[in-house]
Amino acid sequence: MPVEVLGRLRSDRVFRLPARPRAAETIGRPAKHGGEFGFADPGTWPDPDVVTFTGTSRYGTASATAWDRLHPRLTRRAAWLDYDGDLPVLEGTLIRLVVDHLPGDGDPKPYRRSSPDVGTPCTPGRLTPARVRRGFRNLRAKTTRPAGAPKPTTAGPGRPAGSKNRQRAARHDVGKTN
Question: Which residue in 13, 29, 88, 115 has the most C-beta neighbors within 10 A?
């Protein structure tokens, strides 16, 4: 099914590059994953597929960098716990947005989004923060919202500090059984 999902990712995530093609005479199972792409380690990043720079009046110079065919390494936890068969490889495009400055005195941090199967991120070759924001708005209206806002919880009141426990512990006979 052609599915498009767009979401923000944490800065400590690690994705995988596509597996390299193997030689015909190689024996054994083909690799599913290539090298690591650590968000926090620019030394693991290959050359990007698309890079654009745009001057903006509000953010200074904005750069958008995109890598295609990255995927997370899935494990049999959480949503994939009951999945039968080999775990799939969910490839997508990673887009990293960086701006010179934020309005006011904010400190800009890189903004990463992952979007499966979008190919090249924009047709004329220019990917601006505004275009990414507009596209995300259109996708969000078409998707479901599986989780609501978390409800705040606190521990119960318990026994007040300084008071004694007035319930005696249960006692059991330690008799022999035949």
Answer: 115
